[in-house]
Amino acid sequence: MSNKQLLIKTILISAIFFISNIFAVEMEEGVHYDIVSARKSDSKVVKEYFNYGCPGCYKSEPLVKMIENSLPEDASLQSVPFENHAGWRIYVEAFYIAEMLGILDKAHEALFHQVHVEKKAIANKDQLKTLFVKLGADEKRFDQAANSFQLNSKLRLARKEAMSHKILSTPSFVVNDYYRINAQAFKSNKDLVDGINELLQR
User: Fold this and answer.
1) How far apart are CA 148 and CA 57, in angstroms?
2) 121 vs 54, 118, 124, CA distance in Å?
3) 2, 142, 162, 169: least surrounded by Cβ within 10 Å?
4) Residue 104 burial (CB < 10 Å; 0-12/13-18/19+)?
5) In what order do the strands lie in the sheet with 179-181?
6) In Å, what is the CA distance from 7 to each residue of 1, 11, 16, 19, 195?
7) What are the domain boundaries of the chain?
8) Which residues fall within 8 angstroms of residue 79, CB to CB, at 6 or more apart?
9) What does the pLDDT look like over 63-99, one tens digit per residue?
10) Could you give the C-alpha distances from 145 to 55, 64, 110, 150, 160, in angstroms and in order?
């Protein structure tokens, strides 16, 4: 490679580095995120606190996919249902019952669709059972899961975790069990995703 070619290559690399830094989000504590625990998790994880009854959570589904698709191989996305409304406990139960029945992927989409597209709220376990049976769940297994100690334990743990991360509303994102994202501080979804990935590496 000639000196001229080497110079051009160096200039191009420097330009790319400069441009990438122009668009990088300068993360500031108290603005873009708050620290909500004493220590970080041992593994890299982004937790999404949500509820099927939450209109903002339904609208944020494309953003959640963006975050999931952007994560490095050594990081994961976890959904945590949060009961931030008196009538939304059933949706927290729905998440964990679907998980226990092995139909969470199908149920996740179906619940959002019924509540926000069909405008049919779910008020109790009987209505939830009707939906899950349509999705292929066994009625007996549903009854067992819906009335199990395991379900109550999952509900308690989810509530305890949300309290420890100072979750007040949905959707909310927490990185490495340490940084709670202030989504409104970002100008775009891309900036928010970039910010989350930056915090994952800290």
Assistant:
1) 27
2) 11, 9, 9
3) 2
4) middle
5) 33-35, 179-181, 172-175, 44-50, 75-81
6) 10, 6, 14, 18, 33
7) 3-200
8) 47, 48, 50, 64, 95, 108
9) 999 999 999 999 999 999 999 888 899 999 999 999 9
10) 27, 27, 19, 8, 21
- Tokens at residue 186, please? 């970002």
Residues paired with residue 38 on neighbouring β-strands, in sequence order = none
Nearest CA to 193 out of 166, 176, 168, 175 is that of 175
Q: Measuring CA to CA, which residue among 62, 94, 42, 33 is closest to residue 190? A: 62
pLDDT in tens, 149-186: 999 999 999 999 999 999 999 999 999 999 999 999 99
Q: What is the CATH number of domain 3-200?
A: 3.40.30.10
Residue of 195, 186, 163, 194 whose CA lies nearest to 36: 163
> What confidence score (pLDDT) does residue 26 get?
85
Whether the bond into 81 is cis, omega within 30 of 0: no
For residues 118-155, one letter each, b for 16 or more C-beta atoms within 10 angstroms of the residue's C-beta and e for the rest, the string is eeeebeebeebbebbeeeebeeeebeebbeeeebeebb
Entry pTM: 0.85
What is the residue whose two structure tokens read 């330009």?
A: 15
Within the chain, strands assigned E span 33-35, 44-50, 75-81, 172-175, 179-181
pLDDT at 21 over 50: no
**Per-residue pLDDT at 24:** 59
CB count in 10 Å sphere of residue 4: 8
The confidence score (pLDDT) of residue 35 equals 97
